[in-house]
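Much of our argument rests on the idea that a fold can be written as discrete symbols. Part of our work consisted of pairing the sequence of a single chain with a tokenised description of its backbone. We regard such an encoding as a compact summary of how the chain folds. The amino acid sequence and the backbone structure tokens for this protein are reproduced below.
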Amino acid sequence: MRSMTGEAPLDRFDVRSRDPEFAHEVIREAYFDHEVRFLGSTEDFEFAHTGVVAPQFMTVRFEYAMAARLRSGASPQDLVIDTVATGRLALSDGPDVLRVSPGEPVLMPTDGAGWDFEMAAVQVDAVVLDRTTVERAAESLFEVDGPGPVFPSRTAASPESARYWNGVVAHVRDAILADDEVASSPLVLAEAARSLATAALVAFPNSARTRFDDRARDGWSGPAVLRRALDYVDEHAGEDIGVADIARAARIGVRGLQHLFRRHRGRTPLEELRRVRLARAHADLLAADPTYGDTVGAIAARWGFGHAGRFSVEYRKVLGRAPSETLRDRPRTAQRDRPG
């Protein structure tokens, strides 16, 4: 499996070949060991493997211009979710065969067993998620202890769930990874990984969701817990934190924390985090100097806002003006002296 860790925030790759044996070496290195049987002539074979490796996840466009049948070795531990754009794809890890329709996301087996995989003239959009990231998201979303989530189903829970997954993937790919300035922010990439992991847990049936118990939490004092949570958000807003981190700092469960915030603040913990980050971005805009290359997009990305347009809408809603106006009209005394 291609590494999804390292110091470089992004690794963009574009591998193309007309050599079937080389193509399958790429597949073995990137995903899983396997045996292959080609179904027909390889004379017109074409292969493309393009995408982006980020910390905690990878997005891929996979193109394979012929028919073949694969028998995998051990399945990967990381989550691999494929969505067919064109062509035919069938998957079996037992007596039943799953024939995947275009636009239907399918989760590759993660139980360690091998499986059969047949494809013909396919274009597939794939997402690979680091297992630890998924486990952390399950803890945050469903407040579960014990082993990580097990996914018993290869398909999404419903057509709506499938559309939700595809929408999150499209946003990460087209609005975040496609923009070099936005994608250069480690905070934005961490939020993207968390969004993908959460979407997988929501879209696909899993054991963490089954074990989730929505019972009321006892033994906490609302105001004291709230103050601990607010202090933590204020101190760590510039770091990669989520609702589970806030709950741990406040010494309360995630569901209890969410209830507490809605009752006393009228918003969720993550909405509170976004408001704090928005305030920090506002302060940076006031201190910025566009003559030195400061931009609204770069400042927004610094504080975890991966889409400059949505940041501008949220900024105007809270502060009553566009962030570009704040940058343009910043106080002259706030301009920084920088070395030439």
Notes: Residues 213-220, 333-340 have pLDDT under 50 and may be disordered.
